Structure prediction request, 73 residues.
Amino acid sequence: MGKIKGWIAELTEITVALVALGVAAGVVFGADVPFVGAVLGNVVDLINQLGDAGVVGIIVLAILSGMYGSRGM
Prediction:
């Protein structure tokens, strides 16, 4: 059971790192890159679904950066 939890934790860390890379690359290179456009578009859609207020976007950004930072990468 411990091995499975370890694999899931590692897979989650990789996924969070790929999402962060996709968002950063989307900001730098634009949405024309195939993988990056989908990631950035999905994050933007998620933020739009949470609400149109600017404060909500800042809160989501803080949560996502906190999740990424807590992984120790």
Remarks:
- The mean pLDDT is 76.
- The radius of gyration is 14 Å.
- The chain has three helices and no strands.
